[in-house]
């Protein structure tokens, strides 16, 4: 529809644009593909993977080439040398931003840090972000939040591991990054209420779409009416209104004297305090604050999630690197108890882990094309004239795969960074995933801290496998449309809480058997309740004299052994020797389960309290005959279908 309207409108404006096009032509531009009149190279552009499209053009036209998108001149840089020229040597000449409709609208007409043109206002806002919001001290103060959320994530994955469930790591990492950002920036946890989380996720997703959307008016100012006709402008306005309402709600909560303690000292609180105390050279307005919050919200949540998922992707495709980095982490950290997480201090002395992250940033930069810059004055690059108001793209993805810089650039080799001083913080132009210079990402420390903490704990606490039937060669490394992350799923094996899988399976099977045998259910509940009345929770000492409960558990082990495929168990069962091998759910001998006592205790405690505190019914319409006892494929014998029951409190 957009293209149809555009081509209909072209003849109308032909007479107005043609003279200007002739006047603006120059013979000293970098080489590039020949475009069509009026639209330039837009018809050739691959919007799904622009970094790859530009990389292919650089193979033909060189490390600097030119394009034209409508009336907008474009320059693309694909070498570290030229990147240094643009981002450092001539930083001032190339440090402004172009005006794009979606970005300008959501940033309150460019009042943020990322999309604001270079001027006095931007310089002061940059100082605020560096000194007050993302300083090393401030990032460190937020570490308890990061560690708390990573701990929650590890527990969630542990639960999935207990049931041999597939983990959608992409969704999980987006959730983690978003939750951390919301707590750091706003002092709220959006995952507490399902409705609020759904509202927030939809708002974030829609914002990302309209922020980076294609607006005809960005390239053809005369044709802005097309954006209105197609509904894009209305969609943008609606999203802006919803975002503004969200910000207003947050501000209202923060200025409330009875606000939650979690809102004290977060980024929004700091900005409001700076406004109130007038501690900045410029008078901060609420619109200024909302614009900065937009940067934190939209930029912070996606990039960390993408970086973690890409790193896990690379490690799954390179098992030797996975093994090596896990060994480094696990050898350096003393295991304390069943579940713990690494803290940020423990991560600092892991050179191979750090090398893995650098190599991941090299191969898979979260933002493969740096946020485009706009030239403010006439300048020269490689002898070519660059006119003012030219858009300059730096292809960080192509630079990081340049064979003139990197040996075997397409391979994942963390070892290349072990004896190298190259870092990703903007001083080494071979590796610039976060940009460089005065327009470099101010929140790099916060993003990297979250990424390192989450990734190190994923590698420390779990072993990872691909879903059944997949090979490492099947892992797709293509990016998704309108997204800087992609979907990947893993099966996880919990190496720190190995017993939880077995215990969970046994409890579920016991409840399944009891629901199919109401008389047995009634008898075991009577035994428990007669012993304790309504005193509360059954503890481990209370269980020892419950003979019928123990008989129920033994019968469950007989019918539904948690590990029926254990080779040694099967051999002993089929040997028919008249010893205690009739019932060996945990194996026997020196290879028997060393944690049998812990496992049985957990099973007895969980099951006794479930039976003591609640009466249980099947969901409406189901009969006991409908309860399935089919087995799910896996090492541990889980029910194929989930056991969903209605609970009623006993007291």
Strand and helix map with partners:
Blueprint (H helix, E strand, L loop, with lengths): L1 H23 L25 H12 L2 E6 L2 E6 L2 H10 L11 H6 L13 H14 L2 H6 L1 H20 L3 E3 H18 L7 H18 L4 H4 L4 H6 L2 H24 L11 H11 L8 H32 L1 H14 L11 H4 L3 H13 L9 E2 L4 E3 L2 E3 L4 E4 L1 H4 L44 H18 E4 L23 E6 L3 H19 L1 H15 L7 H4 L3 H13 L7 H9 L20 H18 E5 L12 E2 L5 E2 L5 E5 L2
Parallel strand pairs: 2-7
Antiparallel strand pairs: 1-2, 3-9, 4-7, 5-6, 8-9, 10-13, 11-12
Helix pairs in contact: 7-8, 7-19, 7-20, 8-14, 9-12, 14-17, 14-19, 20-23, 20-25
What report would you give on this structure?
This protein is of the alpha+beta class. It has 2 domains: 377 residues, Cytochrome P450 (Cytochrome p450), CATH 1.10.630; 151 residues, Cytochrome p450. A 4-stranded mixed sheet has the order 1-2-7-4, covered by helices on one side. Strands 3-9-8 form a 3-stranded antiparallel sheet. It is elongated. It starts with a helix and ends with a strand. The relative contact order is 0.11.
């Amino acid at each position: 529809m957009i293209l149809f309207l555009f081509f209909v409108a072209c003849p109308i404006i032909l007479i107005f644009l043609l003279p200007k096009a002739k006047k603006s032509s120059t013979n000293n531009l970098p080489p590039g593909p020949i475009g069509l009149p009026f639209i330039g190279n837009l018809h050739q552009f691959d919007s799904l993977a622009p970094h790859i499209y530009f990389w292919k053009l650089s193979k033909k036209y060189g490390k600097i080439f030119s394009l034209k998108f409508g009336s907008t001149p474009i320059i693309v840089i694909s070498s570290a040398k030229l990147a240094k020229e643009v981002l450092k040597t001539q930083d001032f000449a190339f440090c402004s931003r172009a005006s794009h409709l979606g970005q300008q609208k959501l940033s309150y007409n460019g009042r943020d840090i990322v999309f604001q043109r270079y001027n006095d206002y931007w310089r002061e806002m940059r100082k605020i972000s560096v000194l007050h919001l993302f300083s090393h001290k401030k990032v460190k103060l937020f570490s308890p939040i990061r560690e708390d959320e990573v701990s929650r994530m590890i527990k969630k994955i542990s639960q999935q591991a207990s049931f041999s469930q597939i983990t959608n790591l992409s969704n999980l990492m987006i959730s983690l990054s978003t939750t951390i950002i919301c707590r750091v920036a706003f002092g709220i946890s959006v995952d507490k209420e399902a409705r609020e989380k759904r509202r927030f996720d939809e708002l974030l997703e829609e914002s990302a779409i309209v922020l980076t959307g294609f607006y005809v008016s960005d390239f053809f100012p005369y044709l802005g009416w097309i954006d209105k006709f197609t509904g894009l402008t209305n969609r943008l306005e609606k999203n802006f209104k919803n975002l503004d309402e969200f910000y207003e709600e947050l501000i209202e909560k923060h200025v409330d004297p009875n606000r939650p303690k979690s809102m004290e000292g977060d980024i929004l609180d700091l900005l409001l305090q700076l406004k109130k105390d007038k501690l900045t050279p410029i008078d901060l307005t609420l619109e200024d604050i909302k614009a900065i919050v937009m940067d934190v919200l939209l930029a912070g949540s996606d990039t960390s999630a993408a970086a973690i998922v890409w790193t896990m992707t690379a490690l799954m495709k390179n098992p030797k690197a996975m093994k090596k980095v896990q060994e480094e982490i696990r050898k350096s950290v003393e295991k304390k108890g069943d579940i713990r997480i690494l803290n940020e201090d423990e991560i600092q002395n892991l050179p191979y882990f750090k090398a893995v992250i650098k190599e991941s940033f090299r191969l898979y930069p979260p933002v493969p094309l740096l946020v485009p810059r706009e030239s403010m004055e006439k300048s020269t690059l490689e002898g070519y004239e660059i006119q003012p108001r030219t858009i300059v793209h730096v292809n960080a993805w192509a630079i990081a795969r340049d064979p003139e810089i990197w040996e075997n650039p397409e391979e994942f080799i963390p070892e290349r960074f072990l004896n190298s001083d190259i870092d990703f913080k903007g001083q080494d132009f071979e590796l610039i995933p976060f940009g460089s210079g005065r327009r470099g990402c101010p929140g790099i420390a916060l993003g990297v801290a979250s990424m390192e903490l989450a990734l190190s704990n994923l590698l420390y606490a779990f072993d990872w496998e691909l879903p059944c039937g997949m090979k490492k060669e099947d892992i797709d490394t293509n990016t998704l449309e309108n997204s800087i992350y992609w979907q990947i799923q893993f099966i996880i094996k919990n190496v720190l809480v190995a017993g939880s899988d077995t215990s969970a399976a046994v409890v579920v099977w016991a409840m399944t058997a009891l629901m199919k045998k109401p008389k047995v259910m009634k008898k075991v509940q009577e035994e428990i309740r007669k012993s304790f009345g309504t005193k509360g929770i059954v503890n481990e000492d209370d269980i020892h004299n419950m003979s019928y409960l123990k008989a129920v558990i033994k019968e469950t082990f007989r019918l539904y052994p948690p590990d029926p495929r254990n080779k040694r168990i099967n051999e002993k069962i089929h040997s028919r020797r008249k010893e205690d091998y009739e019932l060996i759910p945990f194996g026997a001998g020196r290879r028997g389960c060393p944690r049998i006592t812990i496992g049985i205790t957990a099973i007895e405690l969980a099951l006794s309290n479930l039976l003591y505190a609640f009466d249980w019914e099947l969901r409406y319409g189901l009969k006991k005959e409908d309860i399935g006892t089919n087995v799910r494929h896996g090492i541990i014998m889980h029910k194929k279908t989930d056991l969903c029951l209605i609970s009623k409190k006993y007291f």
